[in-house]
Amino acid sequence: MVEQRRTEVCDLILERYLAGDLPAEERRALDVQRADSSALQSRIDELAVEKQAFLAKDPPTQFAHRMATRLRMAQSESESESELAPVQRAKHWWKWLLAPSATAAVAATVVLTFSVTRVPVESPAAQSQDKAVLEQSPPAAGPREIAVDELETDAIPDGMGFAAGREMKPAPEARMDSGRSRKQLAEESTGRLGGAARKLAKTKDVTGQPPASAPTSPTVIADSPSPAPPARTAPILDADAESAVAGKADVDDVATASGAATWSSPPAGPKRSEVARTAKAKDRGEPEKKKGDVVGLSQAVVAAVVKKNKAAFKACLQAAQDQGSIESGHLELVLNWTVTKDGTVKGATVKGANTEIDAELKGCLQQKLTAWKFPESDTDTVIERMVLPVLIP
Amino acid sequence: MIEQAQIAELYERYGHALYRRCLTLVSNPDDAHELMQEAFFQFWRGRERFEGRSSVFTYLYRIATNLSIDRLRRRKTAGHQIEYSKAEPMTPSVLATDRQAEAASELAELTVGLDEETITVAVLLHVDGMTQEEIATALDLSRRTVGKRLQKFLSHTRKRAVQVETHVTGQMRAGEGHG
């Protein structure tokens, strides 16, 4: 268990001695010892050589550069997380309904089961009637399921009923009354909670206005036709360029890297979260969106996710640099992608703005970009020509 | 503003010692380098918490020791095996002996739940073979404090040993029952 001691003084104290970190008194004592002991002298020399070799392999300037970059990224991520937190909380409010819904479902099942199990203890006449009903039922379903179906059939209004299996078939009267399609009814019957949440999101308009028709075209965040200003955006490997990794102002910089974003989408009714976003956007000095404007992802949210995830590109860039396909210096990447309603990425393309990048790097970057996850929204959001400058050390 | 010059200076002075600390415990140069960087990162991120009661070096050293011990614990949990063949050839004086690696691995299990300072003292005593006097000098602690930390370590170790013994006995009885 014990290390083979090389000298009368342990290496840790010698390391502190070499670092100039020992208190003056102890340092003087060691100086005296060193003068008297050749073994101690040679061990100190040995450690000094090791230290020099270690520092030559990973020089302090490079180390500090990497560390500063990492610290900035960590700082930026924590800011992004705090910015995204309200959106995430608003998005998942419906999860609180899960527990009561599950309890209600269990209770309903117990009640139904209890009702079914009571059937055999009824009078012989009732039993024979039930038997007759069972004999008329489709043979594919088991006795217990058929019994449940019978009970449900009794409960549903005229004009609607259950056929074999569980598919709901609304009668023509019901379709005319509700004005809803069979598909919508089926969706509502199968995905109760999700359907209810979506329905609530559409109808719970804070303005009290009836819900507008759902947008069919995606939101587009794109270049303005005006000439692009010089990019001052999120560097991935650049420790000196501080623009995009600190402060809220930089979040906007990332989103508008290659020009002011334009919003084009058919009108839709605002949601509660949209009202909150509008208030936040107003605080940031963005132009106020009118009622009925698009309800896609905001620039700030997109930018925050980009900031949070851009470090994923580092591995691709590092590998490309190791292979010699990119060289040290500034590199600008142009990113295009679409965020779907559920927050996933599709149609990701990456290319170099100021230089060509090879297919392997392009594929790696696109793969990383496709793995990003954005908050859910009411419509697709298209991000066009976002310029992301990186500094390859 | 992150002062790169300050980070560079700290690294130049203490980087090698911290790397050696990590390497002795985790026996893998890549892991040791990563842990050394992590120690600097954690120090710099939480430097507001550094009260200056010890030197920067001993503070960093405690972080590096704790990170390395934590890595050893995770390896055990994940069933990770060190692949020496992949390790770079290092200067012999830096490589840990088998006995040191074994002692570090045992300590990693025994010190779960202990504070950084106690873990560091225990490692210096049982892995590095330093005397209590040397530990006190190296960590800027009084001899009495070192003694207290070791007492704490022993007390904690006994409790852990009882827990382990109870667990093992239970397992053996359960096995006999099935047999």
Please explain how this structure is put together.
The complex is a heterodimer of chains A (about 400) and B (about 180). By secondary structure, chain A is α+β, with helices and mostly antiparallel strands. Chain A has three domains: about 10-55, no CATH class; about 65-90 and about 215-390, no CATH class; about 95-205, no CATH class. In chain A, about 50% of the residues lie in helices and about 10% in strands. Chain A has helices spanning about 10-20, 25-35, 40-55, 60-90, 100-120, 125-135, 145-155, 170-180, 180-190, 190-205, 250-255, 270-285, 300-310, 315-325, 360-370; strands at about 160, 170, 220, 330-340, 345-350, 380-390. In chain A, the strands form two sheets. A four-stranded mixed β-sheet of chain A has the order 3-6-4-5. In chain A, α2 packs across α3 (about 40-55), α4 (about 60-90) crosses α13 (about 300-310) and α14 (about 315-325) packs antiparallel against α15 (about 360-370). In chain B, about 75% of the residues lie in helices and about 0% in strands. The model of chain B is unreliable at about 80-95 (pLDDT under 50). Chain B contains seven helices and no strands. The longest helix of chain B has about 35 residues, at about 145-180. Chain B is mainly alpha-helical. In chain B, α1 packs across α2 (about 30-45), α1 (about 5-25) crosses α3 (about 55-80) and α6 crosses α7 (about 145-180).
